[in-house]
Amino acid sequence: MDWRRVPSLSALRAFETAARLTSYSAAARELNVTHAAIAQHVRKLEDHFGLSLMQREGQTMQPTADGARLSRSLTKAFGQIAEASEDLIVRDADHPLRIATTPSFAEYWLMPRIGGFWASHPDIRIEIAPSGDLVDLRADGFDLAIRYGRGNWPGLNAERLESAGHIVVAAPSVVGKDYVGCMSDLGDQHWLITGTSTEERVWLKENGLDLSKCRVTQMDVTALSLQAVRAGHGITIVPRAVAMGDIESGTLVALCEEIDSDVGYHILTRPDRVSPQLKTFISWLRKQRKTP
Amino acid sequence: MDWRRVPSLSALRAFETAARLTSYSAAARELNVTHAAIAQHVRKLEDHFGLSLMQREGQTMQPTADGARLSRSLTKAFGQIAEASEDLIVRDADHPLRIATTPSFAEYWLMPRIGGFWASHPDIRIEIAPSGDLVDLRADGFDLAIRYGRGNWPGLNAERLESAGHIVVAAPSVVGKDYVGCMSDLGDQHWLITGTSTEERVWLKENGLDLSKCRVTQMDVTALSLQAVRAGHGITIVPRAVAMGDIESGTLVALCEEIDSDVGYHILTRPDRVSPQLKTFISWLRKQRKTP
DNA sequence: CTCATATGTAAGCTCAGCTAACAGGTGTAA
DNA sequence: TTACACCTGTTAGCTGAGCTTACATATGAG
């Protein structure tokens, strides 16, 4: 292998990331460097090959035909390197199980229960990565993800953990402990919303409430909207599992609940990555859905 | 892609080379660094993964099972990167044609003729890499190789350029201009040999001469043995094409010649790498074999 | 045993990769 | 049209990852 004819691996990595994300800034964020480093690497590659690899299109950078050609191969090769690296980490019997999950699920469902797992399996280490981002189990090196949705995740094994239709909740001080009403009565309330998807808006609308006609405050994280709602500042809509603890303790009241919804939390695993520790964790998860 | 979980690409490259070559020294030579750099990179990877990747076996380093697993993937991935890089260099229409050939062929066959190519194709640049090493057309980025042998090169297109059985030559001052004799008469001569393969020794023996019983001086490069022979210091055995110029001019005399040999020089190309310039060069090569 | 060749380790050097700062470009909303 | 948010382009300077040097030890062959 004649490495003299291959440009810097760092430069190739920077280029691949920029081409994949069509943005130097995004590439810089993924690689934890400044955009200037990315720009310099791409420029260096263009000088090396005597070809243009990226071109500006408005506020994005698109690969040229030559650039696309190169980046396809690089994405494959670097993906292979990342996977090989991951596979070896897995072979270290002491590596912690890496779990990807949403911050709200981690906080309200998993954390209240995890003590039981630690008590019965003190030898198995867990690393929970709460993130609103959609992670790539393979490339990002996760053993398992818990995702909210309907169950269509190509290439992964999915097992339903818990139904979790939407639920609208408020503090008792806002609506009283024995609230009885319908959705359209809530039009005057102050809605504290976290990243509502189209799906939630459709459900609200089907039940007589148009969110665009209400007073809405956007929050970055579910934990923030929940705290504000607990304090009586307004109402919110969340997956049922997230609010169950509060409802049971009386901190929050369920105003409206989605019945027989097919959305829920699922356990996602890779077919090619199974370990005794992972199986033990999945077993434990299954047991949790039988204890409300 | 979570690059935080992937170790240094430089370290991975050093490891892959060491595992492939089963030697830190050889890896150091391929990468043009010291063995200490290789050793440190491998050590760093072992610390990162918490696994042993290489183990000492006498004066070699063999990959462990884990190491072999990783290096297989890396060899593929880095090979892909090298190829993608190469492909892009080729797309630069101005890149010179890279020709791999033995130093003696380059010197005695190609250089005396190349002026004709330059005269008729001044726009096509040529880069000739004379080397005794066996090159990998793909990984080392060559457009064409001229190799001496019988024509069995898997994965490459081979076309015979010229028959070139072995020939034993000497200066006229040593044996006279009109030498008539047989091989076994040459036992007393001083043989100046360049890396004789088993094949040459077998041929000499079939014709009555055991080289191990002669006075032999080993030379590193054919050019050196030929100069010594021209100066009358001894005799040598070379491929016919290499000595033809000298024989025709009378500088050297052919003592014994291999008849109807199936060894020769072949034009080797990659099926996946064809350019108009390359085709032009091959056409020119074909024409040269018709002009003695 | 000697010698050639190999790997192992630690300390110090240096330049490839990076940052900070400045500049200019693009898109959107008022 | 202006203001602003977000984007890429370029240059000069900094620094630690990658490397070398030096010393030590191990292995194999004659």
> Strand tally of chain A, please?
12
Structural class of chain A: alpha/beta
Portion in strands of chain A: 15-25%
Radius of gyration of chain A using CA atoms only: 24 Å
Name the CATH homologous superfamily of the largest domain in chain A.
Periplasmic binding protein-like II
Largest interface: A-B, 44 and 44 residues
Note down, in words, how this protein is organized.
- The structure is a homodimer of 292-residue chains.
- The model of chain A has no long low-confidence stretch (mean pLDDT 85).
- Chain A has a five-stranded mixed β-sheet. A three-stranded antiparallel β-sheet of chain A has the order 10-7-11.
- Chain A has three domains: 3-90, Winged helix-like DNA-binding domain superfamily/Winged helix DNA-binding domain (Arc Repressor Mutant, subunit A); 93-164 and 264-288, Periplasmic binding protein-like II (D-Maltodextrin-Binding Protein, domain 2), CATH 3.40.190; 166-257, D-Maltodextrin-Binding Protein, domain 2, CATH 3.40.190.10.
- In chain A, helix 1 packs across helix 2 (24-31), helix 1 (9-21) packs across helix 4 and helix 2 packs across helix 3 (35-49).
- In chain A, strand 3, helix 5 (103-120) and strand 4 form a beta-alpha-beta unit.
- Chain A has ten helices and twelve strands.
- Chain A has helices at residues 9-21, 24-31, 35-49, 65-91, 103-120, 172-175, 198-206, 222-230, 240-249, 276-288; strands at 54-57, 60-63, 97-101, 126-130, 144-149, 157-163, 166-170, 190-194, 215-219, 235-239, 253-257, 264-269.
- The first copy, chain A, is an alpha/beta fold.
- The first copy, chain A, is globular and about 75 Å long.
- The interface between A and B is large, with 44 and 44 residues.
- Chain A binds a DNA duplex (30 and 30 nucleotides) through residues 8, 10-11, 23-25, 33-41, 43, 56, 58-61.
